[in-house]
Amino acid sequence: MEIAMELTAVVIARNEEKNIESCIKSLFKCGLNKKQLQIILVDSNSSDRTIEIASKYPIEIYRLDKPSIGSALNIGIDFSKAKHILKVDGDSTVPNNFVKIALKMFEKNKKVGLVTGIRKEKNPNTKIGSIYSRRFQESDKPGYITNLGGNFIFDKEAVKKTLIKFPDDHCREETLLCKALNKHGYKCLRLNTVSMVHDSTFDSCEKPNYLKKNKFYAYENAVYLKRMGISTALKEPHIILLFYLFGTTALSFLNPLFFLGMLLPFFGVMLIKKSASEAVYFYYRAFHLMYYLFSSGKKKVGFKKIK
Q1: Strand (E) or helix (H) holding 18
Q2: 134: buried, middle or exposed (CB in 10 Å: 19+, 13-18, 0-12)?
Q3: How far apart are CA 210 and CA 212, in angstroms?
Q4: For domain 5-204, which architecture applies?
Q5: DSSP letter string over 25-44?
Q6: How many angstroms from the chain centroid is the CA of residue 15?
Q7: For the chain, which has fewer Cβ within 10 Å, the N-terminal or C-terminal residue?
Q8: Is 101 left (phi over 0), alpha (psi -120 to 50) or beta?
Q9: Pairing between strand 152-155 and 303-305?
Q10: What is the per-residue pLDDT across 18-34, written as a single tens digit (0 to 9) for each?
Q11: Could you give the dihedral angle defined by the CA atoms of residues 248, 254, 256 and 259, in that order, rounded to the nearest 10 degrees?
């Protein structure tokens, strides 16, 4: 007979041998016993000891043959024995009190389909940590939301009603999930409590690595915009920037001074982000987004159960 679970935690990880143990340990401290909590690790084809380390714990482990957050979430939904699913990033820990507080929100309001909280950076004083910390502070405002990131809990049945499957390819899954739930009358709620402590200790903001991350963000954005259509694409800041740059380039043939107008968005982003490098990366993502909009294709992801 299948045991009724309170929560399934789906940990999504790739090459997280330095973080995976602390991540799993935090889940066992979330206030639920082993009969109430199911933990599934979905490994995105790691080349390090992530699976080896995780195998020491009483959890289920699946391995994808290609990195895919969407496929990982699909596995979590398909093999979950619980009503609610907690999506967890492998480079984070979940604070002790978040799960119990979040689950109560579903009980209070049946139209709540997803609950998240505020993200916190473990190392806010390092160079890369300060970047994450600033982003979290800018985006994580408590209340009902239409976009999110990090760790969150969602109602499995609500998601099944609103979204048939997540696509295998990267496509801003969190945004897609929020929009699907909102469209069908469910609310996505951000609590004024920490849901994720992100550990950037082993991240890098060196240019080769950071440029690679920004290319990835552009790629998943392109897949997402293709799925959502032209009306969503025209509201995307990077698309607006591209139209603006094409327009000023055309006008510069009439008057060379219009070339200077190409720098106005740069200074605008720099003032908002308080960082010249972030403005450069904004332009960088925009041009890669344009490339991927015309070149990115669908990919199929396979998986196997390890444990």
Answers
A1: none
A2: middle
A3: 5
A4: Alpha-Beta Complex (3.90)
A5: HHHTTSS--TTTEEEEEEE-
A6: 17
A7: N
A8: alpha
A9: unpaired
A10: 999 999 999 999 988 88
A11: 0
Axis crossing angle, helix 237-251 with helix 264-273, rounded to the nearest 10: 150
Domain ranges of the chain: 5-204, 207-295
3-state helix, strand, coil in the chain (%, to 5): 45, 20, 35
Q: Which two tokens stand for residue 200?
A: 């950037």
25 versus 3: which is more confidently predicted? 25
pTM (predicted TM-score): 0.81
Question: Beta strands of 14-111 (E only): which ranges?
Answer: 37-43, 60-64, 82-89, 92-93
SS3 113: strand
CA distances (Å), origin 204, targets 70, 131, 218: 25, 11, 19
Report how far apart the first and last C-alpha atoms of the chain are (Å, whole number): 20
Q: Tell me, what amino acid is at 212?
A: K
Helix (H) or strand (E) holding 66: none
Stretch (H or E) spanning 210: helix 207-228
Query: How much is the pLDDT for 21?
Result: 96
Nearest C-alpha neighbor of 243 from the set 256, 262, 227, 224: 262
CB 196 within 8 A of CB 151: yes
Give the CA distances from residue 70 to residues 91, 164, 224, in Å, rounded to whole numbers and listed in that order: 18, 12, 12
Instruction: Tell me the pLDDT tens digit for each residue of 77-121.
Output: 899 999 999 999 999 999 999 999 999 999 999 999 999 999 999
